[in-house]
Amino acid sequence: MKSKKDGGKPASPKSKHLLQQLARTPEQLFSNAFRSQYGALCFRYKEGGHEIEVLVITSRDSGRWIVPKGWPMKGKEPHEAAAIEAWEEAGVRGKVRRAPIGRYTYLKELDDGKVVPCVVDMFQVEVKEIGNEFKERGQRRLDWVSLDEAARRVREIELKSLLVNFRPQGK
């Protein structure tokens, strides 16, 4: 990790805690213990043109920038679960593609304090509706930004790469 002296940000106490916990149980990383989640890369075209902007939101606990995502839902296909998360967490609906556009991994701290590695399959959502009343309204900040700015804000390296390289499929 970089120190403040060399221009890097110090690891947050929460990050250190997650890494320390995982270091005590490394078998989790190598035992097919990855949990599945589904995420939504929500985008819209700026002023009817070809330039796009994407939606980033803050997590409820740490306030860091993320994309809408969540656990599998009984009776729902992965792309449907991603679309539901986009609505519940950010109040956006639109045309979701059935095939994932990529995936990324991260460490998730569960409510019981345990840390589990997660794989997030990402689905493209072209936003057509922005609602004012949704489940997590007031619990998160939302921001529409360029792909590069979204990549700067999120922490996960693989998600940064997905954002920088994203090109909408179909129009």
Could you characterize the architecture of this molecule?
Pfam families: NUDIX. Residues 33-167 form the Nudix hydrolase domain. One of its GO terms (cellular component) is cytoplasm. It is a single chain. The protein is an alpha+beta fold and 171 residues long. The protein has one domain: Alpha-Beta Complex (Nucleoside Triphosphate Pyrophosphohydrolase). 24% of the residues lie in helices and 32% in strands. It contains four helices and eight strands; from the N terminus they run H-E-E-E-E-H-E-E-E-E-H-H. It has helices at residues 13-24, 78-90, 147-153, 157-165; strands at 35-45, 52-58, 65-66, 69-70, 92-96, 102-109, 115-130, 142-145. Strands 1, 2, 3, 4, 5, 6, 7 and 8 form an eight-stranded mixed sheet that branches. Strand 6 and strand 7 form a beta hairpin. Helix 3 packs antiparallel against helix 4 (157-165). The longest helix is centred in the middle third of the chain and has 13 residues, at 78-90. The protein is globular. Mean pLDDT is 85; it is low at 1-9.
How are the SSEs placed, and which strands pair?
Blueprint: H1 13-24, E1 35-45, E2 52-58, E3 65-66, E4 69-70, H2 78-90, E5 92-96, E6 102-109, E7 115-130, E8 142-145, H3 147-153, H4 157-165
Parallel strand pairs: 1-7
Antiparallel strand pairs: 1-2, 1-4, 2-3, 2-8, 5-7, 6-7
Helix pairs in contact: 3-4
Organism: Rhizobium multihospitium
InterPro entries: DDP-like_NUDIX (IPR047198), NUDIX_hydrolase-like_dom_sf (IPR015797), NUDIX_hydrolase_dom (IPR000086)
Keywords: Hydrolase, Magnesium, Metal-binding
